Amino acid sequence: MSRAKLEKLGIDLPLFPVTSVGSFPKAEGLGSARTDYQRGKITREELQRREERATAFWIEKQEELGVDVLVDGEQYRGDMVAYFAENLPGFEQGGLVRSYGNRYYRKPIIVGEVKWTQPITVDWWKFAQSLTRKPVKGMLTGPYTLMDWAFNEYYADRRATCLALAQVIRREVEALIEAGCKIIQVDEPALSVRPEELPVALEGLHVVMDGLPAYFITHACYGAFEHIYPKMLEAPVDNFDLEMSNSGLDMLALFRRDPFTKDLSFGVVDSHSHVIEDVATVRQRIEQALTVLKPEQLWLDPDCGFKTRTIEESVGKLRVIVEAAKEFRSAAVPAR
Amino acid sequence: MQILLTNAGSYPRIGETPELQLLRRTIAAWERKEASDADLRAAEDALVRAALDDQLEAGLDLITDGQIRWYDPISHLAGKLAGVEINGLLRLFDTNFYFRQPVVRGALQRSRALIVSEYEFARSHSSKPVKPVLTGPYTLARSSIVANGAYDNVGALTRGYAVALSLEVQALARAGAEVIQIDEPAILRWPGDLLVLERALAELAASKGKALLALHLSFGDPQPLYERLQKLPVDILSLDFTYNPKLADHVAAAGSDKPLGLGLIDARNTRLEDAAAVAKQAERILSRVKVGPCYLLPSCGLEYLPRDRARSKLKLLAQVRAHLKGTP
Fold first, then answer.
1. How far is B24 from chain A (nearest CA, A)?
2. Number of alpha carbons in the 13 Å side-chain half-sphere of residue A77
3. Measuring CA to CA, which of A70, B56, B273, B294 is 20 to 30 A from B40?
């Protein structure tokens, strides 16, 4: 089904496409560049130049490794909610709140109607796509997660907030499609935080995606999926990108009970560990995946974004995935 | 009906000024071994006092120490018990906050006090009574994993935690605590375990001496359980009203045999409620409560809010009470 959609969109992918979840560690000294910019030591243009250089680094790396569906690595983003909050009128930066231990972040506040006035990610997508002939994914944060990870002082309730944000994200999806983007990832890591609200999250994704010509992926992680599976399969996405390895592949038991009906970007390496898995470990995870999925359904990637890993760890983990994918491709029947 | 103002537990340990960022800086330095244990303790003390001051200034009657010294609501208690190791991060209910998960490898045992010294410090720096807050045995059990077959099931593990915590309840009561709050949010996610919770609370109640036991439930809708919660062996039933807009109607209709804690002020969102509207809701409920005093408090701990908004929510409690008294 989804293979047919990819073909219709003119995207030719091998069996077991390798991709990654979104973020890569900041490259080319970008960490200090952002601080330098905030302190007025470098100009906005200089910061942008360095972000472009870092993006080019990651595109080249992914090509070199043999990744099939690329990401821009989000070198220009702080975090996945703050980035959109900074670029959408209606949001305001909030004060510090704790996320765990001694870690704090600024949680945005919705203070007025959130409006889409111009493309947010399109220029970066175009830049990244101009550097490669392989498809680059458009990367957005979904309306339910944007709602859940912000304070709301404007909309009536959580559902109203989610649906209003969904209209905004749909405009960005349309802008990406118009620019030529065909694979669009709309992340919903908050998908399972309130199982009783899953219908709201699904409603939001329908508003974002219905009737639009793209192959849609949704990434979710750190979840209590047992509370929302198989209902989550009602999402209008072609591919769910799920963290599998961090939880010892325990979701496979759910898939045995109720078959997984979409394509699955299967996290075959742990994004939160320093240890680079060996090919044998990844091979074993793929074998496990193939006990419940057809080969045509299976994409391979890390559990989650790599922004907390080092460049070496990120490259090492991706390399192992590509090697394992190659082994399975040569052993399997061709996709078409 | 007498209305007392209280805090639900945690309070922000950071703010925008350098003084309010002392604890963050000191912990970071301590981790690099550039600050001593004494430096760390002094920074904690300073931020506890800032939390006490904010509550006293807002006019609260019963305050907490803000749980400033707690890494999280789970590992801070479980990690001090014999038989427990602390593991990786897990999301705390539906928040965007993460706790470290306890791994129970052997018999749970309270070999030392958990928060008695924290309570004593706060009390010695407060002109108002201090309410110690403990995460309850059922929620600790639901947040833990068992290794080595140390406990057979969640019921047995809850009992294990209850025995350990009952010693802490006893020690807190002996140290002078008049009200001890037990947080049991997990029961709203697994309501079928109410009997397990009831037995655990009975264990704590047997050790409370003259102290009053307040059960606080947050991070979910308590309405389906409300009538059965009334029968639990606690002195005060304290609820989060923010998950279900109809809960206030339900409680007003059903009434209460116990003093209630009304978590009508949303501690998870920065929007400031209209004090008059909240007072109206509270009034309807309070007219159906048989015995007081009742408590007004935020829906859960305030550390999910930035500090300026947390302070505003505390002040809002006083405004609501003023409306109730007809003196806004």
1. 6
2. 25
3. B56
ipTM of this predicted structure: 0.95
Spatial distance between the Cα atoms of A232 and A225, rounded to a whole number of angstroms: 9
DSSP B229-275: HTTSS-SEEEEE-SS-TTHHHHHHHH-BSS-EEEEEE-TT--PPPPH
Q: Could you report the per-residue pLDDT of A102-131, keeping only the tens digit for each? A: 999 999 999 999 999 999 999 999 999 999
Angle value at C-alpha B67, between B65 and B72, nearest 5 degrees: 175
Rounded CA gap, A320 and B1, in Å?
A: 68
Is there a contact between A104 and B14 if contact means CB atoms under 8 Å apart? yes
Residue type (1 letter), A50: R
A14 vs A299: CA distance, rounded Å: 10
Phi and psi torsions of B225, nearest 5°:
-100, -5
Q: Quick check: pTM over 0.90? A: yes
For chain B, the distance separating the N- and C-terminal CA atoms, rounded to the nearest angstrom, is: 17
What residues of chain A lie within 8 A of the CB of B310, using their CB?
none
What are the chain B neighbours of A102 within 8 Å (beta carbons)?
24, 27-28, 31
CA atoms A233, A236, A242, A247: torsion sign: negative
Q: Is the peptide bond before A195 cis (omega within 30 degrees of 0)?
A: no
Option in A96, A98, A102 nearest B28 (CB): A102
Neighbours of B122 (CB within 10 A): 23
Question: pLDDT by residue (tens digit) across A218-275?
Answer: 999 867 788 899 999 999 999 999 988 887 788 899 999 999 999 999 999 999 888 9
Contact B244, B221 (CB under 8 A): yes
Task: Identify which of B240, B242, B231 has the alpha carbon closest to the alpha carbon of residue B197.
Answer: B231
